[in-house]
Write a structure and sequence with these properties.
The protein has eight helices and ten strands. The protein is of the alpha/beta class.
């Protein structure tokens, strides 16, 4: 067993088992050194084990970027032929996942033993793609983690989501998909110039700027507020 990150707001203890590695997290999973440490730990252990269990019993805070990091790790491990499971969720983490409707996105279990044993029970079923038409949304931001969070949350809310890290790619998505809403958090340009460029691509598109503290805000409240804004602009469009 090894421990890392004692000088940060996140302490990680890793235990290698026969086919699975368990990482016990204590503290805060937030933008900055904490997310980097978790990603680094998973990255190192992934060379040995592609199956990872995160034990979150002592995680007392997670921000939008932190939740996005978990979603992105889940996707990366799954694509690589492995998997990620969460277990022993703290009341705070459970509330965040329930509020953002992400509780079913990453498999969760009551205990470490159940999570570890679940890996031997076979692969997780592939998600079914909805066939009914859905409102399309483009998300633009420079952060992979934040985009992962936005895509997962908005998809669970019933929208079809396209993500981009460059303005030109986002504009292409708007034109190609006929997206009705753009959500962006890039701070490198003024909001007026970004809105103008999207309106040139599609005159009726609604453009929402993320709050400057969205990445570091408590994930469930930030997500709820954003969903309310999306629903509001779509209602006004109707």
């Amino acid at each position: 067993m090894r421990q890392a990150g004692a000088t940060m707001n996140l302490i990680l203890q890793s235990q290698n088992m026969e086919h699975v590695v368990v990482i016990r997290c204590q503290g805060r999973i937030v933008l900055g050194d904490e997310i980097h440490a978790l990603q680094l730990e998973v990255g190192k252990l992934r060379q040995l084990k592609k199956r990872v269990v995160l034990q979150l019993a002592e995680v007392n805070y997670i921000d939008s970027a932190g939740l996005g990091a978990l979603v992105r790790l889940f996707g990366m491990l799954r694509v690589g032929g492995g998997g990620l499971k969460l277990c022993a969720l703290s009341p705070f983490v459970l509330k965040v996942l329930q509020t953002t409707n992400l509780l079913g996105v990453i498999p969760t279990y009551a205990s470490e033993r159940e999570a570890v044993e679940a890996f031997s029970e076979g692969s997780e079923p592939l998600e079914k793609t909805a066939r009914t038409p859905r409102t399309k949304i483009v998300c633009l931001d420079s952060s992979h983690d934040l985009l992962a969070y936005l895509k997962a949350m908005l998809t669970q809310a019933g929208y079809e989501v396209f993500t981009a890290r460059q303005l030109s790619d986002a504009r292409t998505f708007v034109v190609a998909t006929g997206s009705r809403v753009v959500i962006y958090g890039l701070g490198t340009q003024t909001s007026e110039s970004v809105i103008e460029k999207f309106r040139e691509s599609h005159p009726n598109v609604q453009v929402l700027l993320l709050p400057s503290d969205f990445s570091t805000a408590e994930a469930s409240q930030a997500g709820t507020d954003l969903l309310d804004r999306v629903r509001s602009v779509l209602t006004n469009q109707a």
